[in-house]
Amino acid sequence: MSRALERHAKFYVEYAKAHPEDWQWFDTEWQQIKQAWERLPAQYNTLVKDYFLAFINMLTVRGQWQEMISWAETILQIAERENDLASKSHAHQILGTSYSGIGRYASAIKHYEVALDLSRQIGDKRRERSLLMNIGSSYAQMGISNQAIKFYEQALALSRKENDSDLEALCLANLGSVFAHIDLSKSLAYFEQALNIAREVGNRRTEGLALGNEGILTGDVNFLKEALKISREMGDVKGEIVWLFNLSFLFARADLSRGLKYLEQAIGLARQIGDWEQENICLVALSEIYIQTGNIQMAIRILKDNLTTARQVGNQRWEIMALGNLALAHYHLGGINHAIEVASMALQISRQLGDKAGEEATLNNLGMFYQELGNLALALEYYEKSLTIATEIGDQDGLRRSLGNLGVVLRQMGKVEQAVEHHQRALAMARERCDLHSEAIWLHNLGMDFNALGETQVAADYYRQSIDIKTKIRDKRGIAKSVWNLGLIFEQEGNLQQAVELMQTALEYEEPTGDPKSQVYTLHLAQVCAKLKEFAKGT
């Protein structure tokens, strides 16, 4: 190796160590940094290791997963030659992080497990705790909640044994996130514990994490605003993006324009720091807003760009998300066969990765698409497969969703009593978790079930319960649907005046949301008004 190259490499190492968050310098110099790494002879073990350690955090933040895999494999080769167990453990951990970054969670877990075994051999308790958290997070990403809990609890026990309060608080917060899908009261209890410890030790980052997650669970924007404030005070732009995104989600139900403003702020910040993952997540949310407001072509354009980016950076998790949302966009546009084709691609990748949560969600979507085509038997099959996976991995959200969707198909197949049973189970689970949004949905569906059974008064009662909750959570679109269906019951019973009043109320809620269904409502209302006039003439 020439002295010039050695000086070049050492300069980059020293600068990176002294300025670990100078992202502008890193982005500007990246090609030169990469070339220097590629030219370093493998026999210069110490300098290669120093170079790796100096840049691995920057590579992680920038999501340079494929480069990280290549670099970590080089370090692993050196560690093998030197029988350096500590470096081998670190390299396997970085490989795990890299494979997790591209959505290959099963591969990530294999590397984490090797690293965990090595860390235990050399008595590296700090890395052991970190790896237990890594494995727990990978299982959580895959939707395998029981395994995530198992490893988080091991990390928690070890952090308490070693008096690592910072990690203890983070373990509690992560357990809170997992239990959010299983048991709301336990989830909130974990976040409260995390919050108390974070405040005791002055860990502002974990304090913000606990507050923000409590806000998400309870729907309390004040918690989210406090988390946002902490992120801004710390200069934590990534945290700021996360809380702006979640604020946009909470506000979008009641005030779409306000929710959109929060989302646009999040997208702007993500682009400012070059955080492609957060930008991708925010753009998917933006596409959902375009779908809700009827601008589906714009949504498809955004999602196609996301899909291209995901494939360019080799992130299969993003690819699954982009394909899933693109399939939904085509479904809303009326291109159901195209939606099925796109969703099938997402299903294949999910199964290759062992991404159970992605597989479960995609099966649900495919069930919905075949249901729309009228192929109820195939829709039922997909929903049942989705239900099996949700049960297997302990995904309570997926379980409720699958039960509810099965209920809808069973009602359409004329098996209304079974539909009622499924919807009552979904309703009970929603109430157990205090999930008002889901509770309102399944109350509405029970209204449809009992209306199909001819028990219109029972149906009307369910619709009123649904309306009460939707009013509480300010779900305008949901209110419109339930009020409209209540109006249809009055129309069936011949009370046209009451039917018209309810349908007009539904339209007042529906039109501001921009939902194309408002045109269908308007046409039907005109027909009911015409009947009412004819009835008035007759009397």
What is the count of β-strands? Answer: 0
Percentage beta strand: under 5%
Kindly report how far apart the N and C termini lie. 103 Å
Radius of gyration (CA) equals 27 Å
Q: How would a crystallographer describe the biggest sheet?
A: none
| General shape | elongated
Query: How are helices and strands ordered from N to C?
Result: HHHHHHHHHHHHHHHHHHHHHHHHHHH
Counting DSSP H or I runs of 4 or more residues, the number of helices is 27
Range of helix content: over 70%
Unreliable runs, pLDDT <50, ≥5 residues?
A: none
Structural class: mainly alpha
Mean pLDDT over all positions? 86
What does this structure look like?
The chain is mostly helical and 539 residues long. Helices cover 86% and strands 0% of the residues. It is elongated and about 100 Å long. The protein has helices at 3-18, 23-39, 45-61, 65-82, 85-101, 105-121, 125-142, 145-161, 165-179, 184-201, 204-218, 221-234, 237-252, 256-273, 276-292, 296-313, 316-333, 336-353, 356-373, 376-393, 396-412, 416-432, 436-452, 456-472, 476-492, 496-510, 517-538. The longest helix is centred in the last third of the chain and has 22 residues, at 517-538. The mean pLDDT is 86.
Quick recap:
The chain has 539 residues and is an all-alpha fold. It contains 27 helices and no strands.
SSE topology:
Elements lengths: L2 H16 L4 H17 L5 H17 L3 H18 L2 H17 L3 H17 L3 H18 L2 H17 L3 H15 L4 H18 L2 H15 L2 H14 L2 H16 L3 H18 L2 H17 L3 H18 L2 H18 L2 H18 L2 H18 L2 H18 L2 H17 L3 H17 L3 H17 L3 H17 L3 H17 L3 H15 L6 H22 L1
Helix pairs in contact: 1-2, 1-3, 3-4, 4-5, 5-6, 5-7, 6-7, 7-8, 7-9, 8-9, 9-10, 9-11, 10-11, 11-12, 11-13, 12-13, 13-14, 13-15, 14-15, 15-16, 15-17, 16-17, 17-18, 17-19, 18-19, 19-20, 19-21, 20-21, 21-22, 21-23, 22-23, 23-24, 23-25, 24-25, 25-26, 26-27
